[in-house]
């Protein structure tokens, strides 16, 4: 393969070459930088270009390897970091103009773990203000566009990450997820991700001056967005390495024990009153058949009420946000984001006072129900959204827009409230009026069994194909 085509490789394919010494880290990084310079101006996915320091680091990795240093598991892999996580010497702006000069004094655990594994950060990716929209736009850096076309939102809040990795900018993209911020961009762009369960990936920002609210701590996780399911198996073991700065991190191995017999998968199309779009139903049927043919025991079975757990959990989160974050949004947010938050509070009426404490206690009830169900069915295949991904700025269109974007996404934020792993994988490339558009499904898993969810993603991907390939053809045709 020509050097300038190395950006096309998966992380698994690339590390087979870099670790063997067949490809220099410098060449791998340069190829991704060249790709970034070619396509990012039209996407605005990367909002801080770190090319110079990336090439310095890549050269240092090559020199160390030449002198006998053992290459890490992600040796020379180009990655991006979301701008709401600390990277030493760079601003953790979170898409907020008032925070544009908040320079991180040290790396967050997720950045440090990637560095230790040999990855090379080539840029920092865009997020909406306060990382609290399912779309990506802000007054500081502007809008990020979906590489499939400007008729589709890139998702959020890790929208820059999703657009970047699927366009070929970096092989792995860091993101995080408090209500769907890894899975929304994966679904929007046709990428693969797994939202880790609670305690799986160490998290902390050295620049922060106060601890986050309890529900934010319980619901928010760090993760990666990739073009191929195999890359999650390659990279997540490095990401979950322990860090004492997160006292609640659980140091468990990535791979759990093998399960006896065919793995049972609960299959549901229940959208709890929301209309299921035919293309989403077709994607679900495809995923079901792919898993069945791969040896899974797929059965129609209804998990505990995801609508009740999800809506209740998000109302609790809104209660915490109203008490702890609304003042910052009002003071530093744009009028657009203030208006969106006002509708959030209408869509998800915040719990407060004693009621909020009671709901936080009831979280264990919901989690126990799911834990018992997952004893019988280690995996749950479900919709992610009941309809194809929405257009940009849909959440600025009042109550109806917010309802379509977040109100119906109960399978998303329920998993955050429960603290369970949930993966997202494309199962169909739909032909819609605006053009081809990927449709992702969600696979939830037992606690600590992200590996099972990723295995299922790989089985679906083996039949559906990697969505990056038709996307790159589309991008090339559009630029011709």
From TrEMBL:
Family matches, as InterPro entries: Amidase_dom, AS_sf
Domain Amidase: 27-451
Keyword Coiled coil: no
Key words, A-Z: Hydrolase
Keyword Hydrolase among record annotations: yes
Pfam families named in the record: Amidase (PF01425)
The name this protein goes by in its record: Amidase family protein
Biological source species: Leisingera aquaemixtae
């Amino acid at each position: 393969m020509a050097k300038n085509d190395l950006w096309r490789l998966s992380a698994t394919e690339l590390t087979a070459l870099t670790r063997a010494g067949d490809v220099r880290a410098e060449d791998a990084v340069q190829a991704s930088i060249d790709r970034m310079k070619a396509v990012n101006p039209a996407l605005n996915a990367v909002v801080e270009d770190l090319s110079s320091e990336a090439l310095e680091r890549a050269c240092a990795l090559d020199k160390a390897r030449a002198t006998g240093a053992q290459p890490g598991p992600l040796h020379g892999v180009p990655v991006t970091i979301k701008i709401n996580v600390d990277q030493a010497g760079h601003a953790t702006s979170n898409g907020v103009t008032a925070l544009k000069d908040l320079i991180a004094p040290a790396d967050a655990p997720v950045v440090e773990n990637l560095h230790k594994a040999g990855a090379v950060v080539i840029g920092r990716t865009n997020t909406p203000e306060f990382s609290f929209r399912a779309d990506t736009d802000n007054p500081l850096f502007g809008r990020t566009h979906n590489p499939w076309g400007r008729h589709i939102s890139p998702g959020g809040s890790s929208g820059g990450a999703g657009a970047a990795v699927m366009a070929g900018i970096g092989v792995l993209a860091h993101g995080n997820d408090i209500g769907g911020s890894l899975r929304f961009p994966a679904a929007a762009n046709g990428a693969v991700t797994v939202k880790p369960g609670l305690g799986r990936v160490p998290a902390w920002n050295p620049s922060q001056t106060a601890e986050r609210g309890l529900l934010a701590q319980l619901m928010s996780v760090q993760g990666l967005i990739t073009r191929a399911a195999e890359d999650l198996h390659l990279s997540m073991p490095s990401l979950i390495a322990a860090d004492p700065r997160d006292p609640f991190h659980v140091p468990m191995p990535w791979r759990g024990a093998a399960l006896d017999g065919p793995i049972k998968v609960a299959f549901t199309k229940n959208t709890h009153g929301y209309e299921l779009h035919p293309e989403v139903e077709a994607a679900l049927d495809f995923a079901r058949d792919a898993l069945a043919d791969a040896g899974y025991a797929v059965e129609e079975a209804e998990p505990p009420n995801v609508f009740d757990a999800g809506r209740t959990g998000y109302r609790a989160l809104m209660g915490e946000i109203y008490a702890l974050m609304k003042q910052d949004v009002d003071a530093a947010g744009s009028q657009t984001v203030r208006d969106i938050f006002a509708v959030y509070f209408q869509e998800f009426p915040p719990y407060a006072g004693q009621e909020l404490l009671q709901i936080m206690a009831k979280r264990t009830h919901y989690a126990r129900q799911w834990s018992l169900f997952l004893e019988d069915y280690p995996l749950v295949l479900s919709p992610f959204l009941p309809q194809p991904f929405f257009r940009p700025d849909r959440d600025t269109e009042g109550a109806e827009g917010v309802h379509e974007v977040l109100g119906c996404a109960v399978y998303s934020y329920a998993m955050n409230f429960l603290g369970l792993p949930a993966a997202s994988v494309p199962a169909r490339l739909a032909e819609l009026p605006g053009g081809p558009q990927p449709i992702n499904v969600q696979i939830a898993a037992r606690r600590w069994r992200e590996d099972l969810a990723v295995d299922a993603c790989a089985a679906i991907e083996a039949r559906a194909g990697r969505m990056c390939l038709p996307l790159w053809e589309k991008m090339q045709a559009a630029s011709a």
